[in-house]
């Protein structure tokens, strides 16, 4: 069985439209390669009650939870206090992180605000990253990461090898310009029924007025079934008068 | 009081990492301009139980719900069946949409798969869009929209004027290259405490190795308070030896 995961994006800046989230996509891709099934992603505000309730609800429902955002030194960085509360433990100075931050920042600049970053929920283990000394950590099945994409990505890259991986999901995509979903739908449904162990998705695309069409994605853990279903998808596109191209439209 | 909203992105393609979602950001920006408070966004899979439960939970919690995805003619387009079930009504032929689709597609090509798109939950009202005949609709407080961004955007643009708007949220941003969150955190916290009617956010940015720093965003409904708090943010950046620039880093 594939392990399961969920993402919690913590940040008013996403909900206000200020910031386009790109963390969900990076995490989703890494999990897919590792055979870990992403069940859900939520974007929630910097609101203690919402953070605590969401973390508690989601950590009970999946194998791995990934949060991003809210672990810096400013007043709006409240994630660690909330994670500590969700786990019913104090948020206290983590001596190893304290020393790391103090060495990096310099004793004279290691003010109270920055010392807040050295507080981790009791029992948390730091997640290293190569970009900064941002204090990401894991506690229980929850991975608490930075919101800045470059730092989050470095943290995730160091987390992924420590996770239980599942059988990889194999995927094959054919697309065709000017193809219409309505024209292929009935036959596509038949292919889906014939290969129930695969998951066939149909995605219209509009790169621009001339370059539009449909991409048909076949996925699953059974390589032979994926190849066979994808080959029938190819034949279907040809039969309808389209020119199938392998891969994602770009 | 500002009306509240939530977004439900329906689509395996987002959770598998195939597709980078950009719908949340477009909807979030439109709502912010309209003074509608976005409380949450969720990305969920093409799974009937999850869709039905999520729609039922969220439509009870906010004034407006926006869904994207799953309203096309293929077997993986199950949103309308699920919305109908969430509202306890049949998903049936909507004569007006049937005629519109038939005229657009042509009687000879209006096959069974395409006729599925003319099924709307009983009581739903179509949402027009200028790009396609994709059958978006509103039922109760739920707006069901296409997943393809261009079509979703056209639908949303026709929805926004029909909503109850709230007092607009005013926002002012100062950023500075090479500024450090840890250096401004304490004074920033004082400014936040002095202007409790504003919401001050601190966002590190890394455009590239040389262009990094911090953006400080002041938001609220009280224009005078926003201006005053932002002016103190400006002074703080100057005091710390940084050169404040107005607007978002780019």
TrEMBL record, chains A, B:
Residues 6-166 form the MoaB/Mog domain. It comes from the Bacteria. InterPro entries: CinA, FLAD1_M, MoaB/Mog-like_dom_sf, MoaB/Mog_dom. PANTHER family: NICOTINAMIDE-NUCLEOTIDE AMIDOHYDROLASE PNCC (PTHR13939), NMN AMIDOHYDROLASE-LIKE PROTEIN YFAY (PTHR13939:SF0). This is Competence-damage protein. It comes from Commensalibacter papalotli (ex Servin-Garciduenas et al. 2014).
